[in-house]
Design goal:
25% of the residues lie in helices and 16% in strands. The protein is an alpha+beta fold. The strands form seven sheets. It has a seven-stranded mixed β-sheet, with helices on both faces.
């Protein structure tokens, strides 16, 4: 087990790793190892705050996105019911909006500035603004192996829609005003980025590569840490095994070809991921990244705005097959039970992440307590109305956030999304006087 010194070649200081040939596996919080920079005499290392944003396009069911009450008495609309076990660590925001996204009232100019509040260039040009996740990644650079993870479950759209590039509909994370951050769509490559020194196809498990270092570590930590380590390594192995199996059941997502079967020989590799497996794997990779402190910043774009995903994994209300008779974008213009089921499928991903994070103890708190996990869309419903946006958050920001609340900013002078980002970035350790179109933090 290696603990890197504070040197320019190892900027993530006093971090503990398991190492093997071509592999570096960061350790989770262990009481016996000063992982996050404390001196060895101080066993209660203070974990960092992690920030993530999940995005789902095309809004939600108009009558079922709501919350009222407080704490464990909070009532949730049917879209949000999967989050019921985490009500005491949940914050529901009402009335927030993005001024620059009001232009045009179309998908292609409502998403590209969701995390930046920037003005979007028309006429097919590409110009937005640096998003809050990438600003955080820049400010925290050097503290973790990977500055940020930018994950996606649907490829970008290369087209123009009503004078705006649909690159805007496909990206929420922007490294600069003209550069959407590249999406990682493949779970295996995202996994490799966390643990391997070079990304590419692996010929053995990362855990096999660090077996010797693991044995040495087990002999030097407490009994409870041995249990934590075994549990953590088992979760790494499980994700590896599920990546190997993903996509083999053959359910297709997204755009449908004009042929039922290919009329040319099958290409090597490139089997489409089943959407439920794909999303769940990306959720697990996010959890692993935060659990090991390999990164503290992540965005997970579950689908595009103007999405073409289909959901054969969900049973249609008619009882006739899955919800794959209509693409997500068109389904969003309905308000029936099938649309509700798809909405719940997305919030179930957030609930899954919350459950995984809340099960991990980091000292006196859980990993969920030490995280800020936003979920939002670029419109309230599929009818493009975005004078207020759907925003829900789980996590307590390292104990800096009071949760179990509904915060209604409707009609208030400061209800900008960028005001929320100013507040949340400060909770994550980056204090700014201005971000996007806001110079005033949201009082949360």
């Amino acid at each position: 087990m290696k603990t890197h010194p504070m040197t320019p070649s190892h900027p993530f200081t006093r971090r503990a790793f398991l190492q093997g040939v071509g592999v570096t596996v960061a350790l989770p919080w262990l009481e016996s190892v000063p992982v996050w920079g404390d001196q060895p005499a101080n066993k209660a290392s203070e974990p960092p705050v992690r920030f993530a944003c999940l995005f789902s396009g095309n809004g939600y069911h108009s009558k079922e996105w709501w919350a009222k009450g407080t704490g464990d008495k909070m009532e949730l609309g049917r879209v949000l019911e999967p989050l019921k076990p985490y009500r005491e660590k949940l914050t529901f925001f009402k009335g927030l909006y993005n001024q620059e996204a009001l232009i045009g009232g179309i998908h292609s100019c409502q998403t590209g500035n969701l995390l930046s509040g920037a003005h979007l260039a028309p006429d097919g040009g590409i110009k937005s603004g640096q998003s809050c996740d990438q600003l955080l990644a820049d400010k925290l650079k050097g503290q973790t192996k990977v500055p940020s993870l930018v994950l996606g479950c649907e490829p970008s759209i290369a087209a123009i829609h009503k004078n705006y590039s649909m690159i805007y509909s496909s990206h929420i994370s922007w490294s600069s005003a003209s550069t959407p951050t590249p999406l990682e769509l493949f779970p295996a490559l995202a996994f490799d980025r966390l643990f391997r020194d070079e990304v590419g196809r692996a010929d053995k498990s990362v855990l096999d590569a660090v077996r010797d270092d693991t044995r040495g570590l087990r002999s030097s930590v407490s009994k409870s840490d041995q249990h934590r380590l075994d549990e953590y390594l088992a979760s790494v192995r499980e994700v590896e095994q599920r990546i190997d199996q993903a996509g083999k059941t053959g359910r297709l997502q997204g755009w449908r070809p004009t042929l039922d079967k290919p009329d040319v020989p099958r290409p090597a590799d490139g089997i489409p991921q089943d959407i439920d497996q794909h999303m769940r794997l990306m959720c697990d990779i996010l959890v692993l990244a935060f659990r090991t402190d390999t990164t503290r910043v992540c965005t997970l774009k579950l689908n595009n705005d103007h999405s073409s995903l289909r959901f054969p994994n969900l049973k249609a209300e008619s009882g006739k097959g899955g919800i794959d008779y209509m693409i997500h974008h068109l389904l969003s213009h309905t308000d029936g039970e099938d649309w509700l089921k798809v909405n719940r499928f997305f919030t179930e991903q957030l609930a899954y992440i919350a459950g995984k994070l809340d099960a991990v103890k980091e000292g006196d708190r859980t990993l969920l307590d030490n995280s800020i996990i936003l979920m939002c869309s670029s419109m309230m419903t599929g009818n493009h109305n975005n004078d207020q946006l759907p925003v829900v958050m789980v996590g307590r920001g390292g104990g800096t956030l009071k949760t179990g609340r509904v915060l209604d900013f409707t009609g208030k002078p400061n209800r900008k999304m960028c005001s929320l980002y100013l507040s949340l970035m400060e909770k994550a350790g980056v204090k700014l006087d201005q971000f996007g179109d806001s110079k005033e933090k949201l009082e949360i």
